[in-house]
Amino acid sequence: GGFGKVYHGVLNDDQVAVKILSVSSTQGYKEFRAEVELLLRVHHKNLTALIGYCNEGKKVALIYEFMANGTLGDYLLGKKSYVLSWEERLQISLDAAQGLEYLHNGCKPPIVQRDVKPANILINEKLQAKIADFGLSRSVALDGNNQETTDVAGTIGYLDPEYHSTQRLSERSDVYSFGVVLLEVVTGQPVIARSRTRAENIHITDRVELLLSTGDIRGTVDPKLGERFDAGSAWKIAEVAMACASPISKNRPTMSQVVAELKESVSRARAGGGSGASSFTEPAMTAFDSGMFPQAR
């Protein structure tokens, strides 16, 4: 975890995860306090539940519900042999989006998670996803601007470039990070990869933008899925992801808009239009044409 080791335990016959603060971590204690204070006041089915905590002298620990299937990162990095289906990827993305939407809209003042990445999206035995690790989270002002100046925190590759350069924090910073996660879910590729032609690293947004500009949705989607995805659905999710990951924050959708798009995609997939053999057609861009999302390309 962010500030110490995480152990698997049992409490009153229930499995739990116990995050223990390392004695040497002063930064960790600040994050521990932030996490306890936040999780005691927020409750949502797509946020990991805090069952209890211990703060006695040098013994500092957080006790969470146990998430049996690890992290989204475990699946995307191939640490698990199970390959998530297209429909499962959509549902996990929707779960995570709903958790973020609650932090942004269901909490007063709004909360910015600040470190959205696959390692912080946990998955339970029913493949339900929940946002975790709130040690870096911050409340932001309700004055309509929601742009608090803070020390920049987050993970390279997922960090909103506008927040990085201005130090102005808003909910749209989480939207950027979520867009990057969504691109990983679609492509199964790492966020930063070495260029095959030039001696430099290329960010996932640049790689996907190039593929989409040539109309290559097949080359964009995770090859582990084979033909088991719907091309129209893949186009739509890739476009949503690219809109989220726009370098300019005002061009990004809100998490409420993202949730609406993902709900529609999950419904279509369940109705049989999203997980069968791929049909390679040009994307149906209705949501984007309506102006709900900025064009990603």
UniProtKB/TrEMBL annotation:
<keyword id="KW-0067">ATP-binding</keyword>
<dbReference type="InterPro" id="IPR001245">
    <property type="entry name" value="Ser-Thr/Tyr_kinase_cat_dom"/>
</dbReference>
<keyword id="KW-0418">Kinase</keyword>
<keyword id="KW-0812">Transmembrane</keyword>
<dbReference type="GO" id="GO:0016020">
    <property type="term" value="C:membrane"/>
</dbReference>
<keyword id="KW-0472">Membrane</keyword>
<dbReference type="GO" id="GO:0004674">
    <property type="term" value="F:protein serine/threonine kinase activity"/>
</dbReference>
<dbReference type="InterPro" id="IPR000719">
    <property type="entry name" value="Prot_kinase_dom"/>
</dbReference>
<keyword id="KW-1133">Transmembrane helix</keyword>
<keyword id="KW-0808">Transferase</keyword>
<dbReference type="Pfam" id="PF07714">
    <property type="entry name" value="PK_Tyr_Ser-Thr"/>
</dbReference>
<protein>
    <submittedName>
        <fullName>Putative leucine-rich repeat receptor-like protein kinase</fullName>
    </submittedName>
</protein>
<dbReference type="GO" id="GO:0005524">
    <property type="term" value="F:ATP binding"/>
</dbReference>
<dbReference type="InterPro" id="IPR011009">
    <property type="entry name" value="Kinase-like_dom_sf"/>
</dbReference>
<keyword id="KW-0597">Phosphoprotein</keyword>
<keyword id="KW-0675">Receptor</keyword>
<keyword id="KW-0723">Serine/threonine-protein kinase</keyword>
<keyword id="KW-0547">Nucleotide-binding</keyword>
<feature type="domain" description="Protein kinase">
    <location>
        <begin position="1"/>
        <end position="266"/>
    </location>
</feature>
